[in-house]
C-alpha cells in the first residue's frame, strides 16, 4: 500500500525518480513495471499504477458497455492513454510527454501514494486542490461513519 506526499522534480527528459521507499514494493508487486494514465476525474493529475493493479482496473473499465458515451470516454482516458513504463537503473520512469502536457505537469510535481496507485499532480493543481476545504453540504453518508 502506498501512502504519503512527496515533492518530485521532473528532469529535462521528462523522467521522475520513484522514491526509494516505494521501489521495493513496486518491484515485488509487478517487477517494477508500471502504467501511467489520465485521472479522468481531475485536471492536473495523472495516475500511476503498478502493473498488477492496473490490469484489474483496465479489465473493469473495458467490461463497461461501450454504447454509453461516458463509458467510451472513461475507456479512452484510462485504457486508450495507458503507457507502460519501467524504471531505469537509477529508479527513474519516463512520464509520457503527451500526458505531461495535458495535465500541465512541468518541472515541479507532487507524487501522492493513494493505496493501490499513485497520483502525480502538477504542483499548481495540487496546491489548489489541497487549499479547497470540504463543506458540510458535501459530506456523504459514508463519510459520517468516519471517526476523524
Task: Give the helices and strands, then pairings.
Elements: E1 2-9, E2 15-17, H1 20-30, E3 34-38, E4 45-50, H2 51-62, H3 69-80, E5 83-85, E6 92-94, H4 97-103, E7 108-115, E8 118-122, H5 123-131, H6 141-144
Antiparallel strand pairs: 1-7, 2-6, 3-4, 3-5, 4-8, 7-8
Can you tell me about this structure?
The chain is of the alpha+beta class and 148 residues long. It has one domain (2-144): 3-Layer(aba) Sandwich (Chemotaxis protein chec), CATH 3.40.1550.20. Helices cover 37% and strands 28% of the residues. It is built from six helices and eight strands; from the N terminus they run ββαββααββαββαα. The protein has a six-stranded antiparallel β-sheet. A hairpin with a 6-residue loop joins β3 and β4 (45-50). The mean pLDDT is 96. It is found in: Cytoplasm, Nucleoid. Residues 5-53, 82-125 form the SpoVT-AbrB domain. Forms oligomers.
Structure summary:
This protein is of the alpha+beta class. It has helices at residues 20-30, 51-62, 69-80, 97-103, 123-131, 141-144, and strands spanning 2-9, 15-17, 34-38, 45-50, 83-85, 92-94, 108-115, 118-122.
Amino acid at each position: 500500500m502506498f501512502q504519503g506526499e512527496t515533492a518530485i522534480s521532473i528532469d529535462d527528459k521528462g523522467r521522475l525518480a520513484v522514491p526509494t521507499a516505494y521501489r521495493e514494493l513496486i518491484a515485488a508487486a509487478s517487477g517494477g513495471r508500471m502504467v501511467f494514465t489520465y485521472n479522468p476525474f481531475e485536471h492536473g493529475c495523472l495516475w500511476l499504477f503498478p502493473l498488477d493493479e492496473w490490469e484489474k482496473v483496465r479489465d473493469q473499465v473495458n467490461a463497461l458497455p461501450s454504447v454509453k458515451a461516458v463509458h467510451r470516454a472513461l475507456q479512452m482516458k484510462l485504457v486508450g492513454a495507458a503507457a507502460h513504463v519501467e524504471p531505469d537503473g537509477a529508479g527513474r520512469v519516463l512520464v509520457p510527454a503527451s500526458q505531461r502536457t495535458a495535465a500541465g505537469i512541468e518541472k515541479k510535481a507532487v507524487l501522492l501514494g493513494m493505496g493501490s496507485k499513485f497520483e502525480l499532480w502538477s504542483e499548481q493543481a495540487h496546491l489548489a486542490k489541497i487549499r479547497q476545504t470540504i463543506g458540510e453540504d458535501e459530506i456523504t453518508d459514508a463519510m459520517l461513519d468516519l471517526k476523524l
